[in-house]
Specification:
The structure holds two protein chains of two kinds.
Chain A: H1 2-11, H2 13-16, H3 20-42, H4 46-75, E1 88-95, E2 98-106, E3 119-128, E4 131-142, E5 157-165, E6 170-173, E7 186-190, E8 198-200, E9 209-214, E10 227-231, H5 246-253, H6 255-259, H7 267-293, E11 303-306, E12 309-313, E13 316-318, E14 323-326, E15 329-334, E16 338-341, E17 344-347, E18 352-357, E19 361-364, E20 367-370, E21 384-388, E22 393-397, E23 401-415, E24 420-432, E25 437-440, H8 475-498, E26 510-519, H9 522-545
Parallel strand pairs in A: 5-7, 5-8, 5-24, 6-25, 7-9, 9-10, 11-14, 12-15, 13-16, 14-17, 15-18, 16-19, 17-20, 18-21, 19-22, 20-23, 21-23, 22-23, 23-24, 24-25
Antiparallel strand pairs in A: 1-2, 2-3, 3-4, 4-26
Helix pairs in contact in A: 5-7
Chain B: H1 8-60, E1 65-69, E2 73-77, E3 92-98, E4 103-109, H2 117-123, H3 133-142, E5 146-152, E6 155-162, E7 172-181, E8 184-185, E9 189-194
Antiparallel strand pairs in B: 1-2, 2-3, 3-4, 4-5, 6-7, 7-8, 7-9
The chains are: A alpha/beta, B alpha+beta.
């Protein structure tokens, strides 16, 4: 019986499938659950989002590094002006875990840089994990041409024996200068050693100043509180460059004409010919200038146009309403006095004027500078230079404005009234009184004696002995000394080249830049928002009108 | 004995097991859904945080200096477009937090496109050390020459800090803020950005 029952149980297929359905249901549930979890899990993109955010942040950092790299390249003497493809200096350059494309464009021409490019728009496009961020900047390159700057143009005021600023007079940075954003102290300097040689009594003087004196100067050389620096040696204060003489005028203007004669004169004859031309040229100059400038002659004119060239005259006097318009590079040598009364000397944008004055200077309510007479309109002061040659008096008064450099080592220069001088003054004595203002242009600063690291000083911090031969700002002598010192420097540079693995590339040029875009361009958003706003306003107005 | 079908015990057992598994799966799904919502909210917050960082950085980093600052706004000298080294109204950006709309936005002077350059020059006045920049904003707002660009919305709280007592001397700006989300207000986040090339205006 037992065997029979057992046989029946085993023989029934239904009995064999018992529990299988339950197992199948459970397996199905588990599989479905697993698939659901896998599906939901696949929807989780947190990691991808985090990666994007991280890559975006890195891309911005890489773009900023690219900008630093661009500035570093501009500071070196590399051939970035020519070694580019349509302005692209670096393409897919690997840096900081990403790549950058560095593009430079000339700001003035909006074309790729050329040999003359001094201002560039820098665009850095950084890519990290396919995410793009940008950095844009505009940079101005001030080349270091290793020329000597021995005319104390790094000083707003440099005086041989005395500086005085009193009343409501002041010394400021010229806000229109492209380099005025540099937060530097204004430099003043003197070779005086006596106490109270520098007197600052003006309540209006708020800009910080730095005084340079000689090492032997009295500790009371100035009682005003300001930073005082000492020259290691007394620097030479050379006289003004030689005024053009008759011979100089001849060779500058008439020599080509002589050669065209084709005469094969001997040396003596050639000199004689030149001397004859001197007379002719001077007569020509004197005629032009005397007739036009002498209002008593009856030939009175409102504006006198002066073309490029060199002019030698006895005195220059401009009376009310008279204007001297300078076109081209003009040099005027005045052996006597320069007198301006309610007059103007206007210098074209592409022109320059150098005036040598042997006598006194008196300027009352007059203007010397570019055509736009506002002090907010910038003009490179080195395009208008006034040189004094003897122990004379220079007085600027009334509502006078001058955009230029004054260099008169033997003269006493005084600015009073509401005189504004945009540039700098180097003289024997400098006095600012009344409400006079001297607005210094930092772009005149090319180092010079105030820069103890400049090539004027040797390795031991002393001035090169050759500099003491400079009695005047003689371009020929300066050039000779520059060549000599350059040779000395080249010797030391070669040593650096041999050691290039351990020494970074020299960054010899100054680059000033302003960051315009960091990451994304905010100006673009604003432009779109502005467009949208004014367009919608226009639509509303037209709808109302309809 | 009829062996077909399930016994009561088997049925009860199957039902109870199914019920237990069903409850477990529902709980699992609810937890998964909640977790997903939470993660979604977290991701959204992270994205908004990154966006805030980028947008504020785009204004603060290139700015020249901070002109004014309070707890809920900061005034920046964004550019010197007139290259005067002085602040003109059109060069100012007011980054303000409006607690009413819970929006962080930037405001700037925007003269009508139909204006001539001389009209713009006249209206775009120069500021000095005595200028009250909040009044400047109010004045231009009343004249409707202010355009607003929202930077980030759904901000619950927002505070500005700078690293100098005198705003003009500050080189670093910190923004502490919290965001509103589905799960409530987030913890405070901090964005710290520096002014890359600090320039003070001639005043």
């Amino acid at each position: 019986m037992h065997n029979q029952t057992q046989h029946l149980v085993y023989a029934n297929p239904a009995n064999q499938r018992r529990g299988i359905a339950l197992m199948l249901v459970m397996v199905a549930i588990l599989v479905t659950g697993g698939m659901a979890l896998a599906y939901f899990g696949s929807r989780d993109n947190s990691i991808a989002i985090s990666s994007n955010i991280e890559a975006s942040t890195r891309a911005r950092a890489v773009a900023e590094s690219g900008l630093d790299l661009a500035i570093a390249i501009l500071e070196t003497d590399s051939d970035w002006r020519t070694n580019h493809i349509e302005g692209v200096l670096l393409s897919d350059f690997a840096i900081g875990g990403g790549t950058i494309t560095l593009t430079l464009m000339d700001s003035d021409t909006t074309l790729p840089p050329s040999e003359s490019t001094m201002k560039v728009d820098i665009t850095v496009r950084a890519i990290v994990d396919e995410l793009i961020q940008s950095a844009n900047a505009i940079a101005t390159i001030t080349p270091n041409d290793e020329s000597f700057d021995v005319d104390f143009s790094e000083f707003a005021i440099f005086a041989q024996s005395r500086i005085e600023i009193d009343g409501a007079a002041s010394l400021l940075h010229w806000s229109a200068s492209p380099l005025s954003f540099q937060e530097q102290s204004l430099l003043i300097g003197t070779l005086a050693m006596n106490p109270m040689s520098v007197i600052i009594n003006s309540n209006n003087q708020q800009t910080a100043m730095e005084l340079y004196t000689t090492s032997g100067a009295s500790s009371m050389v100035s009682t005003s509180s300001m930073v005082v620096q000492e020259f290691s040696e007394v620097p030479p204060f050379p006289d003004s460059p030689p005024a053009p003489t008759s011979e100089f005028s001849l060779f500058e203007n008439e020599f080509d004409e002589d050669d065209s004669d084709g005469n094969e004169d001997d040396d003596g004859d050639e000199v004689k010919d030149r001397d004859e031309d001197v007379v002719d040229y001077n007569r020509h100059s004197l005629q032009n200038l005397e007739v036009n400038f002498n209002s008593n002659s009856g030939f009175h004119t409102e504006q006198i146009d002066i073309a490029a060239g060199t002019y030698v005259i006895d005195n220059l006097s401009l009376l009310p309403g008279e204007t001297l318009a300078i076109h081209g590079d003009v040099t005027i040598s005045i052996t006597g006095d320069l007198i301006l009364r309610h007059a103007a000397i206007l210098v074209d944008d592409d022109a320059s004027l150098t005036i040598h004055v042997g006598g006194n200077v008196s300027v009352v309510t007059s203007y010397l500078g570019n055509v736009n007479q506002s002090i907010q309109s910038y003009m490179d002061p080195s395009h208008l230079q006034l040189f004094g040659h003897n122990q004379t008096q220079w007085v600027f008064s009334g509502l006078t404005t001058i955009k230029g450099e004054i260099y008169a080592p033997q003269s006493e220069v005084e600015a009073r009234g509401k005189t504004i001088i945009c540039g700098r003054i180097a003289a024997d004595e400098v006095t600012l009184s009344g409400a006079a203002q001297l607005l210094y242009d930092p772009s005149l600063d090319h180092g010079g004696f105030a820069d103890f690291e400049s090539s004027l000083y040797n390795d031991s911090g002393e001035l090169h002995p050759e500099l003491f031969q400079l009695a005047t700002l003689d371009p020929f002598l300066i050039n000779e000394i520059m060549l000599y010192v350059s040779m000395l420097n080249d010797g030391s540079e070669n040593q650096y080249v041999n050691d290039w693995l351990t020494n970074p590339t020299d960054r010899i040029h100054d680059v000033n830049y302003a960051l315009l875009v960091y990451g994304v361009d905010a100006r673009e958003w604003e432009s779109l928002a502005s467009e949208l706003r004014w367009e919608s306003d226009k639509c509303i107005i037209s709808a109302v009108q309809r | 004995m009829n062996q077909r079908g399930l016994s009561l015990l088997e049925t009860l057992l199957a039902i109870s097991i199914t019920a237990v598994i069903g409850v477990a799966i529902s709980a699992l799904m609810a937890a998964a859904a909640n977790s997903l919502s939470s993660r979604d909210d977290g991701r959204s917050t992270a994205i908004r945080l990154a966006t805030t960082n980028i947008r504020l950085g785009a204004y603060i980093a290139p700015s020249l200096c901070v002109l004014d600052k309070s707890n809920n706004h900061i005034t920046l000298w964004f550019e010197d477009s007139r290259t005067s080294n002085t602040v003109h109204a059109s060069e100012i950006r007011w980054i303000t937090f409006d607690s009413g709309t819970k929006t962080l936005s930037v405001k700037f002077v925007d003269f009508p496109a139909s204006w001539s350059q001389s009209m713009v020059d006249d209206a775009d006045f120069e500021c000095n050390s005595l200028t009250d920049y909040a009044s400047v904003l109010s004045s231009f707002e009343s004249s409707e020459y202010i355009t607003t660009v929202p930077l980030v919305d759904s901000i619950e709280t927002c505070n500005f800090w700078i690293n100098q007592p005198n705003p003009v001397e500050a080189t670093r700006v910190s923004i502490r803020f919290s965001l509103a989300s589905v799960f409530g207000v987030t913890k405070d986040s901090m964005i710290d950005e520096s002014i890359r090339l600090h320039v003070t205006p001639i005043q």
